Amino acid sequence: MKNFFKIFIALVLGVFVISCEKDEDQAVLGEGTNPSLTADVKVLVLDKDHENDKAVKFDWVNPKFNIQVAFNNALEIAKAGTSFQNAKSVDVVAKDLTVTYTIRDFNKMMLDAGILPGTTSQIEIRLRSKVGDITLYSSPVAITVTPYLTEFPSFYLVGEASAVGWNASSAQLLYKKDNLSTIYTYLETGKAFRFLGQQDWNPINYSLDAAGIKTENKYFKTWSPNLAASPAENIQFNGPTGMYKIVIDADATQKSIAVTPSPINNWNPANLYIVGTVNGWDSGTAIPMSSLGNGKFEYTTALPAASEFKFLGQQSWGDLDWGNITTDGNTGYIGPKGSNGNIKFDGTGGSYKITVDVKLGIYTIKPL
Length: 368
Hints:
2 helices, mainly beta, seven-stranded mixed sheet, single chain
């Protein structure tokens, strides 16, 4: 019995000591002082012709605690008067106590934060410092800034959810017109993809602006409900496997991605035919193409000047109908019935090989 009481007393004392140690640690850490932030300019008119020049330098003082701690710091950027709602966050190295941005980099930060190009705007920037569960903010720095419009980016689709897999050198370039990039292509359910800025893994990657994604890869502010952030900077597709229309709006105020089912959910038709000026637009005598499998077809024919044609999945004007994406032209991208025009090609009368990849949503016309 004596031993039992000894053990009980020892346990009570141990809990008391641990509790005291935790209270003591909290007391030693303290609440901390707020960080401070300064900028060396108050007005910035960003000039595309001097992208490599210095734009602005920020200096800061980290919070002070009763013990030495490590901080995770970031600059938060927002339109003035928004109380930093939907602020753009840019990580900085706490121990450096300073950071300088070129005109190119700062302009990108402004566009990413939704600041309109070609317009003078009032913005606020503050320093956010985190240590453990404690978050502290500096007073905001006010800057008047005028960003410039850069060329809208190009987007290359890659990933196991796509038809090209994880081969960056084969990544699918979306059709770009102004701020919109579009493609009709195949996606597989439950698998991941991402967008590259080139047919290579570096230097540019585009993913969702969501938790767990690296700051430099966050891009899309809004996305359709069949998409979700996935580990390792990816986007997971959660819709049924099939053909989809992908539309990216790169306008600085949007930065959105929408993935919706294609009107034609058939990426591997049994047959594909050419109809157009090459056969007098007679769908009943549409010319059969040679199937290469997996949604690929080809055909060689003479194409004189002002040639126009489309692709049919049957020898009639039925549901399986593909043409140039959206409208008449020769973009190299196909669109389904209801969202296409004629393919217009000024040939020379010589022989051309026409290839179609329904799964990838593209076509080519090459001389022999």
